[in-house]
User: Fold this.
Amino acid sequence: MGERAPETKGHKEDDAGAETEVIDAGEGDPYQQVEGNPNRFSLHSNLSMGGGKATGTYSIPKEARHIFVNEILYNALVPTLPQDIKDAGKLVRFTGSDVPSIPINWRFAESVSALKAFEASMLNVLRKRKYGSELSWVTIDTDHASLFFMSPFLAKVVEDGELKEIARNPEKLEKYGFQNADLHRASASPHRQLATNIYETKDGRFYHVHGSMNPDPTLEALGMDLDGDPAEEYESVSNRFQEIVREFDSQELDALMNDKFRQAGTIAYSTEEFQATEHGKANKHVGLYEIRSSQTKQPASWWPENDSMPSSAERPLAGLKVVDLTRVIAAPTITRGLAEMGASVMRITAPHLTDLSGVHQDLNWGKWTAHLDLRNEDDRRQLVDLIREADVVVEGYRPGVMEKYGLSRNDIFELVKDRDRGVIHVKENCYGWNGQWR
Assistant:
């Protein structure tokens, strides 16, 4: 964020004499419409990217901008964006080295940077609409953004002015109040950890074996021991898994894992292969998310102000009450982001539910956590009371889990039908909400 930026618009003739609109954010971050396609934009070739020296061939900040503009802001599959979002998007600068700071062949830093730019732009629009703030500059460092998925391993506790390394150490985590929730000992040894990894199959394909929170079923499916030496080297363990997995054809292994042992493994599909699957076809109309509105008569509104935690442009989500029904990584990351913007997040879990304790020092950042056992009627009643006060409910459990406790999406809408505002119910999953893998 930072100072306001001037906005300029003009017109420019290309080499063929065709006129295209040029949109300039004011400090060397312009993009222009592609002739014949009003929803596609290209960057000026002389764009200075900052941070790293431009090579003239490929630049991560430049590609991040391309993804942000073309694949998000002007993507017809990303629905119902606020009208101000494109103005906010002009005020995003991408800086960083042209070449990957982490060697990887996917557009990793580029995609994360584009998503963080989208998040920042949406927040910029919210600040303008709710608080009357001017749209501000946003700077995305693509090198820093590439560390987003690794943040649990970078988080440290400061004690008496000293940094304490606690990641992946259950004893140290418990010392600082992070209960060990690895009930199935998924992290007990490299042997159990590497039940989640990608290995080559007999037919030359690759398969993502997934041990999830309990590696036992995956290890049983592969005919392997359930335990291993905690001191064994990762390379030795990986080689052992590779030898076993190479005995299977990819389709054979996929059927074994999913149909018989009900594990979350998958063939490593190319983009084109995934799009050709029945599930890919069922989701071809979906972008980053889907929005489904209820038939409520409650008008759209901001959340109520809270005197003890007043909201402001500096803490834009302060006072927003979020009930966090999530575990593991993906969905807790959503609610951590809300907490970082000022929301009051109450995470609900239970002692009998396994979880990834090693990420709690990062993904529980800024949240309260409480234990409620939904098998108990009194605990269910307490959760219902929390939801009745909530502005947002985020759920990351498998389909049907919350329904059996009377907390489906429709149940939650019913709980708040008589108040003056509605509720936002967010459901996260891996494969989307259409098709056979949902």
